[in-house]
Amino acid sequence: MSRAPEHPADFERKVLECWHDSATHWQQLIDQDSVASRIITSPAIEQAVLSYQPSRVLDVGCGEGWLARKLAKRGFQVTGVDAVESLVNAARAQDPHSHYLCLEYDALPGPLADCQFDLAVCNFSLFGDQSVQRLVTTLLDLLPAHGHLLIQTLHPLSACQGDYREGWRNSQWQGLNEHGQQLGEAPPWFFRSLAGWLTLLQQSGRLVHMQEPLDPETRLPLSALFHVQPVRQQDRNKP
Asked: Do 148 and 213 meet the contact criterion of CB atoms below 8 Å apart?
């Protein structure tokens, strides 16, 4: 049994380690449509992107590239970024026309510093604490004033499991692997309240819209989908 992380940096490293270890199983879950909530959340993020009709899209945490492929088929220029090499390789194999990079989030903007994007999207790809704040600021700085950052994440109301205090949580994979067994260790994640998300986003940008895709059976929100515009550094401290 692995030792539980003790410090914030340990949790951040553990997130990436778990994704590396379970990347193959995750791809199987996606290929087999084994994550039931995606019936609602996947169309939600796709339609959110389409509503802005961007020319160039940056998909951060693209995984095996399902969203990038969807957008590329609609004629958008897409760059996908993920820290897990096996997932990036799978995305490249399925979509040779888009551009994929294997980069850890803290390495951004890196080779993308001189690139121009109309929109950046993080679809269920933000698990950390301080790393998320840094990434949001970095992505907003890459966008023009009229650009948008879309973030879809588990809705705090549905994800809190009866404890609404912010902090690191353990998680479990949904679904089974090809042998009918539970998947390997799932990554920890940092739970934020809705107020926590709003505060984080407003520190770096301007929240212009929020969606709450609902579970049609429970009538509870499955996700929170934030639409954020850049605020330039000189304007961030203005009232």
From this structure: no
**Please, what's the largest Cα pairwise distance for the chain?**
57
Three-state SS for 169?
A: strand
CA 10 to CA 71: how far, in whole Å?
35
Buried b (16+ CB within 10 A) or exposed e, 93-110: eebeebbbbbbebeebee
Q: How far apart are CA 110 and CA 30, in angstroms?
A: 29
Strand 167-169 to 119-123 pairing: unpaired
**CA–CA distance, 71 with 69 (Å, rounded to integer):** 5
Q: How confident is the model at residue 178 (pLDDT cuts 50, 70, 90)?
A: low
Q: Which two tokens stand for residue 168?
A: 């690191």
Amino acid letter, 161: Q
Q: 0.85 cut: is pTM over it?
A: yes
Instruction: Kindly list the domain boundaries of the chain, sorted by start residue.
Output: 11-141+151-159+196-235
Which fold does the domain 11-141+151-159+196-235 belong to in CATH? Answer: Rossmann fold (3.40.50)
Residues 63-98 pLDDT 10s: 999 999 999 999 999 999 999 999 999 999 999 888
Q: What is the pLDDT of residue 2?
A: 41
User: Considering Cα of 107, then 88, then 143, then 193, what sign does the dihedral take?
Assistant: negative
pLDDT of residue 3: 42
Q: Residue 49 phi/psi, 5° resolution?
A: -65, -45
E strand residue ranges, 83-200: 99-102, 119-123, 148-154, 167-169, 189-191
